[in-house]
Design goal:
By secondary structure, the chain is mostly helical. The protein has a domain of 218 residues. The chain is built from eight helices and no strands. The chain starts with 11 loop residues before the first helix and ends with a helix.
């Protein structure tokens, strides 16, 4: 249990909640990481498609438009064909539209400078046409050769260079996406491996720790129910309800040992005192027989009355002493019986507390099973989240396909982007595979939850068995209590008889004193003494019977105690 100190909470509910919250946290981290990566990938692909690719295409179209219009202007000047002029004028609207679109995509100073130069180039072409219309064809050709053509070549080259830069940016972005995909795949794999290992470890350790302690308690309760109390205290390995059950079991074992030891001691005392009481009763009976003989001798001859009265006084004195001793022993026995009875009541109360504790653990196990089932439902919700992630991956795959189509339209300048689009498509496939692995992990977690539910239900059954065993021990204590009640009643009866015998002995002593002091009342004294002797003899017979019954009950109590192995 030392390896579970991290989960050493004071309740089973908190321990299970902390363990499975850790697993869910790992799964959530994995899902959130995948979602963030997919979002970043989508943003970068959108940037490639909406900005960089379009910017590349627009730059190349502007360069192509300028090249075509420059050739049209040169052809018009050389061949004076109005068709060239019309085509040149038709290309102006397309050129303006391309310029505006390029500015919308890229508002950098470099693009603005190129557009300004292109406007300047357009102004020069207007001068060429104006000179031509004036009839200055040579001037128009001169402007064409010295200003329009060089500026056109420079702008075409600049726009082509801009397209090349956009292509390089697209390639760099594609490499960034591929590198991020590789990093995310490694992180996802590490998190998945940690989640699986942690889930298996927590499930194994929790189920092992709880079932191990419960089985230990059940085995100890079975031994106690069979009367074996010789084992050492159970080791308390946790502070939760199971640890409290272990402590209660140890306390109950200590109390039962102490109670049985006291019962054994008291039963031995009762047995010894009953034997002494029987012996004293026999001696008293012998004494009463001697008193009866003395009464006969007094009746047969008054001349020996004084001597017999003196002897009778000695016998009665000895008899009174024995009665007082027997009475004291009986009172001690009665007090000891009451102590044993009180301890039996305490033991029964402890049994009741143990039963209540078992019921509490019974209820907690029931709640724990419900909590683990709730965890299984939450795992199903995670499966739904994984389905959403898979849908996003499919959309990313579709977006990659669209990007590949756009790259194909872009021609040779879109080859680099086509490679990136293919990498994005592969990345979408990898995300889909990761989603499949996450689904497998969630399934493993659900299987682990089922295993924990099964372990808790086994512990649930063991706790119910323990409750039945404690109930059986409670019935055994009830039997002990009834036997001790009978012993206490018998001891009380014997005490009452001894009290009556003490009173009778006092009467006998008074009668003998009267016989010794007043010889003329010898006849009446002999009659009273004879009657007292008969009453004493009858009482002693009852004392002997009660003492034998007390000895038998003490033996039965010893037999019950010997059933337990201390």
């Amino acid at each position: 249990m030392k390896n579970l100190k991290v989960f050493n909470f004071k309740s089973i509910r908190s321990k299970l909640f902390a363990a499975f919250s850790t697993i869910i946290l790992f799964v959530l981290v994995l899902g959130i990481t995948t979602l963030i990566f997919n979002q970043n990938t989508n943003d970068k692909v959108k940037e490639l498609n909406d900005e960089q690719l379009n910017s590349l295409v627009k730059a190349e179209k502007i360069a192509l438009n300028m090249s075509q219009r420059t050739n049209l202007l040169r052809g018009f000047l050389l061949y004076e064909d109005e068709t060239y002029k019309e085509e040149f004028q038709n290309g102006i609207e397309e050129s303006i539209a391309l310029e505006n679109e390029l500015l919308e995509l890229d508002k950098s100073g470099k693009v603005q400078e190129l557009i300004d130069q292109k406007i300047e180039w357009g102004t020069l072409t207007d001068q060429v046409y104006a000179e031509y219309e004036k009839g200055n064809k040579e001037r128009a050709l001169q402007i064409m050769e010295t200003e329009v053509q060089p500026l056109s070549d420079e702008l075409i080259q600049s726009f082509e260079q801009l397209a090349i830069e956009r292509e390089e940016q697209m390639n760099q972005t594609g490499n960034d996406i591929v590198n991020a995909s590789s990093t995310n795949g490694s992180i996802s794999l590490i998190i998945m491996i940690l989640a699986v290992i942690l889930g298996i470890l927590i499930a194994a350790l929790l189920s092992r720790s709880m079932t191990k302690q419960l089985k230990t308690v059940m085995n100890r309760l079975k031994k106690m129910a069979d009367g074996d109390l010789s084992d050492e205290d159970l080791q308390v390995e946790s502070k939760d309800e199971i640890g409290q059950l272990v402590e209660s079991t140890n306390d109950m074992s200590h109390h039962i040992k102490k109670l049985l030891g006291k019962i054994h001691s008291v039963s031995e005392t009762v047995s010894a005192h009953s034997e002494e009481l029987t012996q004293s009763a026999n001696e008293v009976m012998k004494g009463t027989e001697k008193v009866s003989a003395a009464m006969e001798e007094i009746a047969s001859g008054s001349e020996n009355q004084a001597n017999h009265a003196s002897q009778m006084a000695e016998n009665v004195t000895a008899f009174s002493t024995k009665l007082r001793e027997s009475n004291e022993d009986s009172e001690l026995t009665y007090d000891a019986s009451k102590q044993v009875l009180d301890m039996t009541h305490d033991g029964r109360k402890l049994m009741n507390r143990s039963v209540n504790q078992m019921k509490s653990i019974y209820s907690i196990f029931d709640q724990s099973v419900d909590k683990v089932k709730d965890l299984d439902a939450q795992s199903s919700e995670i499966s739904k989240l994984v389905t959403v992630i898979k849908d996003i991956a499919d959309q990313t795959n579709l977006l990659a396909l669209n990007a590949a189509i756009e790259a194909a339209r872009a021609g040779e300048h879109g080859e680099g982007f086509a490679v990136v689009a293919d990498e994005v498509r592969k990345l979408a496939v990898q995300v889909s595979d990761s989603v499949t692995e996450i689904t497998t992990i969630v399934g493993s977690i659900q299987e682990g939850s089922s295993t924990v539910v099964q372990s808790l239900e086994e512990g649930y059954a063991e706790v119910e068995k323990g409750a039945n065993e404690i109930q059986s021990m409670e019935e055994t204590f009830e039997t002990l209590r009834i036997a001790i009640d009978e012993i206490a009643a018998s001891v009380g009866f014997v005490t009452n008889n001894l009290t009556e015998m003490t009173n009778s002995s006092q009467k006998m002593d008074a009668s003998i004193e009267e016989i010794a002091s007043v010889s003329e009342e010898a006849a009446s004294g002999v009659q009273e003494s004879a009657a007292a002797s008969q009453q004493t003899n009858s009482t002693m017979q009852e004392v002997t019977a009660s003492s034998e019954q007390l000895s038998q009950l003490a033996e039965e109590l010893n037999g019950l105690v010997r059933q337990f192995k201390m």
